[in-house]
Amino acid sequence: GENVEQHPSTLSVQEGDSAVIKCTYSDSASNYFPWYKQELGKRPQLIIDIRSNVGEKKDQRIAVTLNKTAKHFSLHITETQPEDSAVYFCAATYGGSQGNLIFGKGTKLSVKP
Amino acid sequence: DTGVSQDPRHKITKRGQNVTFRCDPISEHNRLYWYRQTLGQGPEFLTYFQNEAQLEKSRLLSDRFSAERPKGSFSTLEIQRTEQGDSAMYLCASSLAGGPYEQYFGPGTRLTVT
Fold it and tell me: CA nearest B38 in A: which residue?
């Protein structure tokens, strides 16, 4: 079946360093790739997304890149801060649907002050 | 608060009982999704509605699960004859239709089956 693989499962960085999380997807029809941040006990929050007609998108310290040929996309966080510590999930649409998402297993990011 | 809301936030039930959860989406959103999340995993798609029509259900979804959105606004998810394996966080999300568009999640209902 369709799936999204996410790496690494845990990531520890020093405050001010950059963090990169990578995802690969299997469905060539996937056309929308959101990233969610989930703090302990809270709801997933959409932080950035990218559509298949775009290769890169940036929002302040956060950027996402997409390589459709290789079927992978990545989240880049620069100048990390302790409040960036959370679990990050990537997701992709699947099965030709216009919105149903399949999620990766998450990356627990720890930013040490 | 104009975000997605869910009720109850927590539910403890005994195995074999039925439970029902409610989701109120963002008012202008005509798509509503149900997901399930277990510890250490990403949300898993269960089903979604566009207005009152249920357009897709996960092939993995047991027949004990049923969802409704009778007037195209709020939705309910019912689990019949609960099992311990149903213990999870049940998340609702909503979005505009015609996209794909951004999905915004509610706070979830944490179900514990004893």
Answer: A105
Chain B residues with CB under 8 Å of A44 CB are 43, 91, 105
| A17-36 residues touching B, CB cutoff 8 A | 31-32, 34, 36
A50, with CB counted inside 10 A (0-12, 13-18, 19+), is buried
Of B91, B81, B93, residue with least CA distance to B31: B93
Expressed in angstroms, the distance from the first to the final Cα of chain B is: 33
CA distance A65 to A72: 8
Instruction: Tell me how close the Cα of B99 comes to any Cα of chain A, in angstroms.
Output: 6
pLDDT in tens, chain B (114 residues): 579 999 999 999 999 999 999 999 999 999 999 999 999 899 999 999 999 999 888 888 889 999 999 988 999 999 999 999 999 999 999 998 877 789 999 999 999 999
Q: Beta A86-93 vs A107-112: how paired, if at all?
A: antiparallel
Residue A82 DSSP SS3: helix
